[in-house]
Amino acid sequence: MSERMRLHIFLLLIMIFPLVDIFNGVFISYGSNIPLGTIYRIFFIAYIFYGVLTKGVKQTDDYFLLLITLFTLTILCIVQTFFFNTGIKLLVDELSYVIRFYLCLLIPFFAKQFGNYLSVKRLTKLALLLDTFLIGGLLVPYVLGLGNSTYDDVAGFKGFYFATNDIAYAFLIMLFFIGWFLIQQKRQVIPAGVLLGLYFLNLYCLLILGTKSGLLTGILYSIFLIGFFLFRHQSRTLYEQFFIFEILVGLLFFLLMKGKEFLLRSLSSIIARFTYFRTLYQDDWPRLLLSSRNVYLKEAIANFYELPKNQSVFWFGSGFENRWNWYGRRGGLIEMDFFDMFFSYGIIGTVILITVMVHFLRVAMHQGRNGFCIFLLIFTIIYSFLVGHVFFSALSATVFGFTCMFIQVIKEEQV
Fold first, then answer.
1. Distance of CA 44 to CAs 80, 103, 262, Å?
2. Share of the chain above pLDDT 90, in %
3. Considering only CA atoms, which of 51, 45, 170 is closest in space to residue 100?
4. 150 and 158 in contact (C-beta within 8 Å)?
């Protein structure tokens, strides 16, 4: 098999992951025990190792970071098994969490090894296909009246995806990419009308999902884009300068006129849910805005202090599975990735996570800063810190790995 063919298969495996997650969600929703998502990702990771080893590994800095991460987190899981005297089944369950985290590094690592065959143009087309599958995976069940909701039948609809926060992260990243593609007029690969259509479909999906972070970020980013094209976009003609802005206003007007009933129904449901939790939490705004994550954090800290030999656990953590089995919802899962990393894999795991983020920030700033690349990484850090479901969710970890791959290619072409 040629190197070009191996790369095409790799990109195809990335492109189809939303479809795999959708069918996996269908099986789970209807009581089937087929672990389609797990099978797919085991095959995907095995293929990455196969592709790299058959080509020959380039010993770059990301290669050593990957080796250290794979070895360290796997050893931490084994140490926890012996320290807490748990069985092999729990070890396998625990390894499923770190395998998701490995995707954040394995995807850009494979791309780095095959960098000669990658370009921003190729990844742009892949991103749009990926976004189309993500959108279809939410809107098709919504139109057909199938799937699941987090809160009620109007807001919080997640179709057959597993969780709202990780799919919201995916839609936001795709929204950022499409906005950047619109800005890059000199590199235009896809017609502006297609990009704008996908942009509004992403916003529509964020409205259906109904997460506070997704809606707020989508609105703020849209305001930034309108301001950019109105005041900062440089072009040769006045028509070019206002073309996208005029379409944005026109589509927004159409959405408000034709989709007014849907918007009012969705927003009223979101506002009603917000009011309900505000009353329930008695105007505790930090708890309301963080969806009780600050409470879970306090409980996790209390659980840690009560744990025997917590001086040792400080270094290697308790593991996701142990924490959930011991404490359940009361501090067993915080849903803030940096804190979950600390309590699950100790200070050693936390240092690894910070090192990974610093590595990709270095890539984004290598030989001249790229504002878009840095923005993607800073947003990911903030989102994972406050909302979570990025590094330990299979869907969002794959999206983040794709993002880091895109950043690498952007920087290589820039250099």
1. 27, 9, 39
2. 46
3. 45
4. yes
